[in-house]
Structure formats: structure tokens, C-alpha cells
Amino acid sequence: MTLRVKDMVAAAETEIVTLRAEEAKARHGAADVRFIDLRDRRELEREGRIPGAFHCPRGMLEFWIDPESPYHKPIFAEDVQFVFYCASGWRSALSAKTAQDMGLDKVSHLGGGFSAWRDSGLPVEQVTAK
């Protein structure tokens, strides 16, 4: 194996904006910012989420961003800043890079992910099982 995930994440982070938890908190709730939770449903139900975050499973991101995809979600056509996050920041770094590559121009990710947000004492919203 010549390419490792940690190398992919490190490369992505040289091309994207990484926000610390307090920087993300300063943007949270703004009308022109959307937090995108990339974790799977079990993680949401077990740990909660950043209040108001939109859930997009990582495996669907490209399909939901692409306006020509039958799975496109209108949220990704909004002219807003997207703040992607996952559990620890790896999936969100790769996702932010992918979103940029697909044409979203106001993209960042939460360094350290949901764990950094929660460990900073920032608000968490519980998610009920479907």
C-alpha cells in the first residue's frame, strides 16, 4: 500500500480551511452557515450532534452535492458556508476537499470533529432513533 488515509487527510488539510471548535462556535447559528454531520446514524443516536446540523452520511456526499445526480439535496445548492464534521476530523477533511473539488466554494471542516466540539463544552443536541 503506497497511499495511507493519514496521508490523504494531511494532503487535504493543506487545501481546505480547518476551524477550531471555538471558531466553529462563532459561526454556528449564522443564517449563511450550514453544519454538515457526516457520521453514521448510530453515531448520531449514541452521541448527539451539533444543534441544527444537517445529517449527510459520508457515503452519500458526492451524490447529494451533484446537481445532476438523482439523489441531489437542495441544501448543497445554497449559497452558504458549509462546515463539515465527523467524529475526529478525518472524514470531514476528506469531505471538505471533495466538496471543494466539486465546486462548493465556501467550505471548511471542524478540526478534531464532534469530539473537539463536545470536549470544548459546546452545545450538543440529542438525536432520537428512527
TrEMBL record:
Entries under PROSITE patterns matching the protein: RHODANESE_3
InterPro entries membership: Rhodanese-like_dom, Rhodanese-like_dom_sf
Rhodanese domain boundaries: 29-126
MF annotations from Gene Ontology: thiosulfate-cyanide sulfurtransferase activity
Protein name in the entry: Rhodanese domain-containing protein
Organism: Puniceibacterium antarcticum
The organism's taxonomic lineage, starting at the top: Bacteria, Pseudomonadati, Pseudomonadota, Alphaproteobacteria, Rhodobacterales
